[in-house]
Write a structure and sequence with these properties.
Layout (H helix, E strand, L loop, with lengths): L1 E7 L3 H11 L5 E8 L6 H14 L6 E2 L38 H11 L4 E5 L4 H9 L7 E7 L14 H5 L1 H8 L5 E4 L1 H4 L6 H8 L4 H20 L7 H10 L4 E6 L1 E3 L10 E3 L11 E7 L1 H14 L4
Parallel strand pairs: 1-2, 1-4, 2-3, 4-5, 5-6, 6-10
Antiparallel strand pairs: 7-10, 8-9
Helix pairs in contact: 1-2, 1-9, 1-10, 3-4, 4-6
Bound molecules: beta-D-ribofuranose and calcium ion.
Length: 309
């Protein structure tokens, strides 16, 4: 099994990624969820994560992380609603958060796993950067970080920048320069699959706890998108999770990528050296294409095969 910590800012598509991860515990050994401010404030992302994980019957630790980006003011996203989970209300868990914060939780598991721990980061990279700053030896202890963030071309927050990298560009810079093996699942692939109605219907038809919560989240996403744009919803964070589980889902190219931390137009841009002008070795394995059919088939099968309770 792959020992994994998921760093999340739950968040609707984060919630779908968490649900998919919890349906994959035959392959993943999820050590902890760590939370960060992003889509909404950290009190809400932590609460949403704890409620979701416990509602699905898992007692995996949930450790609270950064309240705000390293240097910038927190910028949240209105598209996930005021609580982060739209109009979905989960039972409030009475369980406590893990006694260590996100940074020390990551370090604890990284140290005890002797270089085998993988991280999946689907929010701003604040916790990971703080972990590197607080525990510099961490860079030798992490096997790989898969990041939902950035884009080789274009943005969704600004014309050049993806939301997670925009929110905490200073943290992104530290992580991208860390030397830890990085996989970037950016908008180049996460914007391609758009939730088709037949996938929604098939998930809805599954009679289990995972599908019931996912359907409520999809309902919110579908209504929201009808109101604000004409495109069906994207599941950015679930695609990053799937990339760990499905080796043939995504095509990659290696690039040297730097982060713009200021920039009047380009704050948070993941700048790839396409023409090798810097002569630097690549530091990122970047997603360039995705097989959408494979992704949807995987998603439907996950819900169909899930524990029927
Ligand atoms: C990313 O931004 C957030 O709103 C989503 O949860 C995802 O992680 C997409 O740009
Ligand atoms: Ca997210």
């Amino acid at each position: 099994k792959i020992p994994l910590i998921m760093d999340v800012d739950t968040g609707t598509d984060d919630a779908i990624a968490i649900i998919c991860a919890l349906m994959s515990v035959d392959i993943l050994n999820i050590k902890a969820f760590t939370t960060v401010a992003g889509n909404v404030g950290v009190d809400l992302t932590s609460r949403n994560t704890l409620n979701l994980v416990r509602a699905l019957g898992f007692d995996i630790p949930v450790a609270v992380g950064a309240r705000k980006p390293l240097k910038k003011a927190l910028h949240t996203a209105i598209s996930h609603g005021s609580t982060g989970l739209g109009d979905v209300h989960l039972p409030r868990s009475k369980n406590l958060f893990y006694p260590k914060d996100a940074v020390d939780t990551i370090y604890q598991y990284a140290s005890s796993l002797n270089g085998e721990l993988e991280l999946l980061a689907v929010g701003p990279l604040t916790n990971l950067a703080e972990a590197i700053l607080r525990h510099p030896d961490l860079i030798k202890l992490i096997k790989r970080i898969t990041i939902m963030g950035g884009a080789l071309r274009g943005g969704n927050m600004t014309q050049t920048s993806e939301f997670n990298c925009y929110v905490d560009p200073d943290a992104s810079k530290i992580v991208f320069e860390s030397g830890i093996p990085l996989v970037m699942i950016g908008l180049d692939v996460t914007l391609k699959p758009q939730l088709p109605l037949f996938v929604y219907e098939q998930v809805k038809a599954c009679e289990n706890k995972f599908a019931r919560i996912a359907t409520q989240i999809f309902d919110f996403m579908l209504r929201r998108n009808e109101q604000y744009c004409f495109d069906p919803p994207n599941l950015h964070d679930a695609i990053a999770l799937a990339s760990i589980l499905l080796p043939n889902l995504i095509t990659f190219k290696n690039y040297h990528i730097e982060i713009e931390t200021e920039g009047t137009i380009t704050r948070g841009m993941t700048v790839a050296d396409f023409n090798h002008v810097l002569g630097e070795e690549p530091n990122v394995q970047a997603a360039v294409d995705i097989d959408c059919d494979v992704f949807w088939e995987w998603l439907i099968n996950k819900f169909r095969d899930a524990d029927q309770s």
